[in-house]
Design a protein that fits this description.
2 copies of one chain form a homodimer. Helices cover about 45% and strands about 15% of the residues of chain A. Chain A is built from 14 helices and 16 strands. In chain A, the strands form 3 sheets. In chain A, strands 2, 3, 4, 5, 8, 9, 10 and 11 form an 8-stranded mixed beta sheet that branches. The longest helix of chain A has 28 residues, at about 305-330. Chains A and B meet through helix 1, helix 3, helix 4, helix 6 and strand 3 of A and helix 1, helix 3, helix 4, helix 6 and strand 3 of B.
Chain lengths: ~425, ~425
């Protein structure tokens, strides 16, 4: 018996795109009848120095007598004074930008932060026009499509593709098309992007971010920058980058990749006029986020350990994984197949474009699964945007969270499967 | 400069009703230029045995080596296996109702749980009809109106008022009107109620709950029972009551009043067909709730301490506060004014009906504030339902979380202010 749902309930229960794939992956892994090499996403690794830092903080909480007031009291929907003050101090000291407490909102993780932000600014407007969440450069995080309460709210601009040496490539912002779309548009509610980018590992240049922010100022809409992999923490950037602050940008910062995914702490830094709006949403939908996590975050911001472990332990750990994946692909992938790995500029993922792939990404996913390897097919990251290019179905996302051996073995199996489908295709063509 | 919001963003940012009052209260208390007796809500008291229980659990976590996996890993959107299994074991042992893990969902607090539930089932339907969240007996928790994403989604049935001895009264379910409203209705998405009731302290009888549940079965809609004050925890019930389990009921359980408001743990127990829907919403909007809080909750469910402190420390603490409030009002309130306190059956509140009140509840709120006492005016708990009765504007909510002295002093000041406005009214009438 299926329950009767509201339109919002139906939207949230859709089992298509990334949710269908993720559901399938969870089922496969939960089944337990077979061992898989999980290169889909999985959990971030538990890094010893990072885990020790969080444990030490919690031990201190129990010793310093603050515990009852942290755990046994409700707090402000903006977040605890302690964490907000720590964020203000830390970011003001580090960056040349005036940050006040009115610029800060703490949420139960950055997914929830994006949920509040996107749905505050995008979706049906009182003028009857659906305000889009515009992604300036596809592909981007599939969870944005999941987080919107109204259907058809996410739109994206196809990227330019720039070939590099050595089986590498890079996406570039199509500035012209982006500016064209923004020009005079009254159906854009917000612009949203991840930097570093999930899934591709691309890092938009500061110049591009400023160009996007300027267009947002013109249109009077916020620019949501999902900073889940950005410096100063978790700092999973492999090229130089710094957060950009303007009067349009809301940074959506996460502690999940710096060892605290279990505790759900998200930090928004942005203009007070936007922060206020998201705070109201939070107070209605959640009251506030966990105060234990907030206490822990404040402590490691204050003593500088969070930024330090991010830089010295988290970043090199994933950078080495990326190099390992790249080497394994260069070693294992067949010579006569055109393939390209996106330049590794940051994030937890390798993004592989197999230009010669004769089957769709979802079919490659199925064949890899049959061979014991789980990856994430790439199409969902293009958000069902009508882009008439085979590229959309030629990409897969490979997680850097797996063990070294698993990445190496996985690359070998992947190479074999790709070789198989490509040869099969050639045979069919030759026969025809 | 006001940002442009979606309809949902505007709804969440409305500053009317309870949100306007709560905003005012926060501002007044934050100001600090004056001391107030805060009988508005405030934080639950930190009770020593309860606080010690939570601290002991967290100490054990740090000792038993589980910490890194709790804190450093993502988990299922249903909740951790440990807490789900603990809930299943605890409720199955205690109640004669078969509970499986498919019946359980863990969320970041019960406000968020209600947010997912109400918006999954209520609001605009694909048939173009707005599905209401129906409150069977007003008054009820003002937060339901805050949590709905669509305007005009909450509706309520006025109560019957039953006078009791000794300045006491009790609300009764208007069964006839409720059943009439449910009969053949295709514009009801869910029925929602709190038991024990916030604000009145009423506890609907099991018979009434079953009658409501039967009507929900007929209409094929869920019955959301907000169990924030119910047994088995926090067990802030002052008369006998037990949770009722049927194939329509979703219990929305909270740990906030059992000493853990800071950690945001909500537990839904209900039919799998509904639980699944809420889980999908959660996975899109929040991923999952804090795992530290979940670990702590599982431990104190398993060893029985949560139910024990609820019964032996939490319940008597608030019951004594209620008796104290009642005695203070009987002692202090003027003899020639008709006033009635709702029978204290449970919850954190005393609910005072001043039948002779010549000014609106919001005006009484303002005068009390001017005299240094903060209460919550009652009208918002009637959810702007068109009920043509002065009763709606004659009630105030008094929190039982304040110190004994504050309750006594507050009752004295209240009595004086009420006497003043009533005498003033008489003078005006006599002159006229």
């Amino acid at each position: 018996m299926k329950p009767k749902l509201s339109i919002i309930g139906e939207k949230m229960n859709e089992k298509t795109g990334i949710r269908a794939v993720m559901g399938d992956i969870q089922e496969v892994l939960r089944d337990g009848s077979r061992e898989y090499l999980n290169l889909s996403a999985g959990n971030p690794m538990i890094l010893p120095e990072t885990a020790a830092m969080w444990q030490a903080v919690l031990e201190r909480l129990l010793e310093d007598g603050m515990f009852p007031s942290v755990i046994s009291q409700y707090g402000s929907s903006y977040g605890t004074d302690e964490l907000i003050n720590s964020v203000v101090r830390f970011f003001s000291d580090r960056y040349d930008h005036d940050i006040q407490k009115e610029n800060v909102l703490i949420t139960a993780g950055s997914q929830q932060l994006l949920f509040f932000a996107i749905n505050s600014f995008c979706g049906m407007g009182s003028d009857g026009v659906v305000k889009k969440a515009l992604i300036p450069m596809l592909p981007d995080y599939a969870g944005y499509s999941g987080a919107v309460l109204d259907m058809h709210t996410v739109e994206g601009i196809p990227p330019l593709i720039s070939a590099l040496n050595d089986h590498m490539f890079r996406y570039e912002l199509n500035r012209e098309r982006f500016l064209q779309r923004m020009q005079g548009a009254c159906d854009i509610g917000a612009v949203v992007l991840s930097r570093p980018n999930n899934p591709s590992g691309n890092v938009l240049s500061e110049e591009d971010v400023l160009l996007i922010s300027d267009a947002c100022r013109e249109a009077d809409v916020p620019l949501l920058i999902d900073s889940a992999y950005a410096p100063p923490f978790p700092a999973i950037n492999f090229i130089e980058m710094e957060p950009v602050f303007t009067d349009q940008i809301i940074h959506c910062i996460s502690l999940s990749k710096a060892g605290l995914p279990g505790e759900r702490v998200g930090i928004a830094i942005g203009p007070p006029r936007y922060i206020k709006v998201m705070e109201a949403f939070q107070s209605n939908a959640a009251i506030h986020s966990s105060r234990l996590g907030q206490y822990m975050a404040a402590a490691v911001l204050d003593d500088g350990r969070l930024a330090a472990v991010s830089q010295h332990e988290v970043r090199p750990y994933y950078y080495n994984k990326f190099l390992l994946l790249k080497d394994a692909l260069l070693r294992e992938m067949p010579d006569d197949v055109k393939w390209h790995l996106h330049r590794g500029e940051g994030s937890l993922f390798g993004w592989l474009w197999i230009e010669d792939l004769p089957v769709a990404d979802i079919e490659l996913y199925a064949r890899l699964k049959a061979n014991g390897v789980i990856i994430v097919p790439g199409a969902s990251f293009f958000h069902h945007v009508p882009w008439d290019s085979p590229h959309v179905r030629q990409c897969i996302r490979i997680s850097l969270t797996a063990a070294d051996e698993d990445i190496k073995k996985g690359a070998g199996i992947l190479a074999g499967v790709v070789e198989g489908v490509c040869q099969n295709e050639k045979l069919i063509k030759n026969r025809g």
